[in-house]
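Q: What does the assembled structure look like for these inputs?
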Amino acid sequence: MIIETFRQAIQNVWSNKLRTFLTMLGIIIGVMAVIVIVGLGNGMTQSMRDSFSSLGTNTLNIQVWGYGSRTASVDDLYKIVDQNRDLIQAISPEIDFSGTGSLKIGTNTYRWVTINGVDEHYTAMRNFQIAQGRGLQYMDIKDNKQVCIIGDYINRVAFGGNGLGQTLKIGANKFRIVGVLAAKVSDPDMQEGSDDNSVFLPYSTVMRLSNQSTVSNYTAVMADESRANEAKAVVENGLLALMGSENSYYVYSASEWLEEMNKMINMVIVVLTGIASISLLVGGIGIMNIMLVSVTERTREIGIRKALGAKERTILAQFVVEAATTSALGGVLGIALGYIVSMAANKLLPILAGGTDITVSPSFNSIAVAFGISVGIGVLFGYLPARRAARLNPIEALRYD
Amino acid sequence: MSALIEFDEVCKYYQMGDTTVKAADHITMKIEKGEFVAIVGQSGSGKSTCMNIIGCLDVPTAGTYRLNGKDVGKMSRNELAAIRNEMLGFIFQQYNLLPRLNLMENVEVPLVYAGVPRAERHARAREVLDQVGLGDKLKNKPNQLSGGQQQRVSIARALVRNPAVILADEPTGALDSHTGREVLGMLQQLHDEGHTVVLITHDNSIAVQADRIIRLEDGQVVYDGDSHAPEAIVQPTLLPEEPGKEGKA
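A:
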């Protein structure tokens, strides 16, 4: 009987191809829009996550300005970290020195090089490996030595791989290269914008050369990324206790930003999906409308079926199944169309939006949900016309022309 | 042993504005198993109402109708549907076949509602279509057939559940006299095979084909007896029709 009901539904849907297609159009467009929008959201979130994780989502960036005469020293920061090893793995000053003068090696000037003053733990903290020579040491920092370690890219491009022991110039100051770092990025073409295009100096040397009395910028690595908020809080509380003003420091966590960003993207997606869903609603009303027409058209058929022994629930099932079949078919077409549009968008977006890495990636979940919703809409909006059909008086229905 | 169809003071009243229309007014009658009865009457005589009640499409306002000993008036709509499916075979003036289904599917509809398995449905449908001489047109659509053939399909459909009563409502009304006679012959044959046939008609010349005539006027039985008695085909009273008494005679 159930099989028979489905067979008849498909037969009826099929015998009115154009009408069925027009009825389904609302559902098709709605499902397509939902799939593309959710896919776009996934792509945006992914792209955002990728660009943030290149910044390091497990790092905290700490800026200290001081408040009046009160400030926090490097040792103060070390102490805060020492007391919270479960949250923060390591911390190092990270003072930008590239503003002082550009990097010169021989007669060539190199721009866009990261030049940072750091401490002896920094390379390990940032997961650099020493390829040749040694890393920065406590004595380099204590004595403000003019030494440096260089990234693989500089070593390769400026020194032809033989940088160790040579000197480089930053502005007017000369530094001896005591160590070369192993490449972090394996593809040589991708190294230029990466960590491998860096020079690291003792932070104390940078402070002396640039006449700074305090360190204003630190990078810390968290022990557990999922507890970013706690890690941020302990640093903030430590700094507040030292300086007594919330305006004297700023702690920034990339993962926190990522979270905020995700929240915003999700909100936008929810709103857009809501708008797209209006189309599903309109599609549902279209189905209801056409089912009401169909019930009227088939009044006599309903009368005949009732005379032959169809129960009310049989007629109800027949029309509900028919509506659900129509909208499910619309759902399937919408999914297919949504998929095609997503694929086309992936081809077109880089051309239109110039070098964006946003992709439209429809998820299995959104497809499953879209299909479920379209069937649900068919049942929901098919129910009212079906009930009307089921309740028809057989005598009047038989007499209907 | 009670009769197959038993009307006891059956009344059916309709409210039309301020007036109450008595479509059936204390009808009492019995039809035994195996009878061939014609219910005859003019438009507005109440014969359609009578048919609707016999066919379990409607229930009486007052009085009792027993079909095979069961009081139909007390049944729910679902029970009525089951009774129609099991006990009654309808033959309509307009054939009332489902246009989108082929002959086989049309004949199978009552079997589908009875929950008969597919293979058995096919076999049974083929059997009855053979019986009415359409065994070679199983896959045709109704609109590919002549009126007489379509009426034979509807007879096959009425027979397919082997019902207790075959109820024919003006079965020849849409046919020419030749095919009409053919269809009547078929009903006669069904009666000879032991089926109970109730024929509803306004046409005396058709009614006399039955063994017994029940004549209705204004919702009341005015004659009930042998179809060959002269009173059976008494000319209808030439009173003007009362309009709006019933939608269709």
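Chain A is about 55% helix and 15% strand.
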